[in-house]
Amino acid sequence: MKTTDTHHPYDTDVLVVGSGPAGGSTALLLATYGIRTLLVTKYGWLANTPRAHITNQRTMEVLRDLGVESEAMTFGSPSRLMGDTVLCTALTGEEIGRIRSWGTGPATATEYASKSPCEMIDLPQTYLEPILVSNAAARGAKVRFDTEFLRFTQDEEGVTAVLRDRVRGDEFTVRARYLIGADGGRSAVAEQLGLPFAGRMAKAGSMNIVFKADLGRYCVHRPSVLYWVLRPGAETGGIGMGLVRMVRPWNEWLLVWGYDIEQPPPQVDEETARQIVRDLVGDPDLPVEITSTSLWTVNHAYATQYSSGRVFCAGDAVHRHPPSNGLGSNTSVQDAYNLAWKLAMVIRGEAGPALLDSYSAERAPVGQQIVERANLSRDQFGPVFEVLGVGGGSDEDAIAEGLAAIRERTPEGAKKRRLLREAIQLKNYEFNAHGVEMNQRYVSSAVLPDDSAEVWEEDRELVHRPTTRPGAKLPHAWLVDARGERLSTLDLVGDGVLTVLTGLSGGVWDSAASACRDTLGVPLRLVRVGADNSRDPYGEWSRVSEIAEDGVLLVRPDGHVAWRRATAPESAQAAHDELLGALRHVLAR
Q1: By C-alpha distance, which of 101, 62, 143, 56 is closest to 337?
Q2: CB–CB of 445/354 below 8 Å?
Q3: HSE on the CB side for 316, CA within 13 Å?
Q4: How far apart are CA 467 and CA 464, in angstroms?
Q5: CB atoms within 10 A of CB 562
Q6: Is 0.70 topped by the overall pTM?
Q7: Is the pLDDT of residue 2 over 60?
Q8: What contacts 520, CB < 8 A, 6 or more positions away?
Q9: How far is it, in rounded angstroms, from Cα 237 to Cα 297?
Q10: Distance of alpha carbon 291 from alpha carbon 285, whole angstroms
Q11: Beta bridge partners of 243
């Protein structure tokens, strides 16, 4: 694959290893930005099991910017089928409780809907990956299946990777400007790069059983993607309780069950898998088609640095955790969103290489947060067990006795019911963690902080608090275009371009942006909210912008605010100088 064209010493600008959510979205973003990209995966095709599935609003905003949101909506299950999370002794058994999840409850629906133009959906990985990779290929990325990454060397000018064609059996090299390891929780790239990790791997054992069965009669009246099942042994390994997870309503499923990691791994043949499915469903005669089985481990590990030299890692390669909170693929896509525009601008010569240092500074704290949050959510089933009086070694009789005690019409029964409600309420931190999903605040050289202090009056993990403070994501507000149709403030930014956003009276920023564009040779979009194509008839933007109409925001291609000025300076020259200084700071120029 080595080129003989001396004018192009690189085979590709960026080599992406891995075709999962991190690798696929990286390739799609880079191809969209016009960067030569080669994606390789050792597998013969994309995801063959549904694995990740919860697709939160921030990830949907990324897909919206990429122009594939409607495709995701077509293949995903809508939020109205996601949110009635059930805790039970079996799908046919007794309910322990229900949790309104993913912002679908009366207390959270308005909060979620007001903070984003996008709806949360359930999009199994088997559908997400083809959307990402096929669109990446359509936009110019080269994709090679059955191509295994072996090793790399890097120097000041680039990276040379050794790959193996698993069909032919031969090895070959690829020379790239940059290498991205998006090769999962056992990342060979991260290992060879020697990234530092905190935490531990293999905390507990778990199994996935993918199956087909018609469970509509147990689910239609309480639609959800998650049915948590308390059976004997539920406290051993796994992710807190047994789980029957909807893949497609209501006939495709993924079951999660734990095993003791201190013992030899269990042998899960089709008959064993079928018995586990029937046990958790509670129907001993249920017709079940087993599609696949696999074992995996619950991890609690995160990289404290995401890159070294010209090699970067993203996704599960740098944050390894259980699926609790549904954060895995979402964080992976958002890693890519953070990194891709920076690589594109550096490769095009629009930004200095030091911009790339901000990737680790911004994303490593997010990775640590979600690893710790997911593991804590897994552990927060413990209070439910405690109230019911069940734990290690509990059998069906013990579980029945615990539930009977909850139903007692006595002061003690009333106390247990209150404690159970509190224990279940704690699970909001897993199923309604809007703040964990949306409240990222970047601190790095690619952000110019101002001297404002952010005061958190709400629970930072549960409630998303929009702000235009530098480092935060641009708030969503509904505007109206020249045709009278709604558009989001998020629709005014992105597309791989920096945006200067001001109001109708912010004319001083027009000439400043134009002059900076010419001086730096950097594409720069100017948006004036209030103009005919972006009117603010609801007044939503004026309420959330936190700047005067003649103030300004410098918004990065990933939608995060890099710099703001609350009001216009006294002169056009001052506006030019301040904006130019901000751009040079962000772009490391």
Answers
A1: 62
A2: yes
A3: 23
A4: 10
A5: 24
A6: yes
A7: no
A8: 350, 580, 583, 584, 587, 589
A9: 9
A10: 18
A11: 228, 256
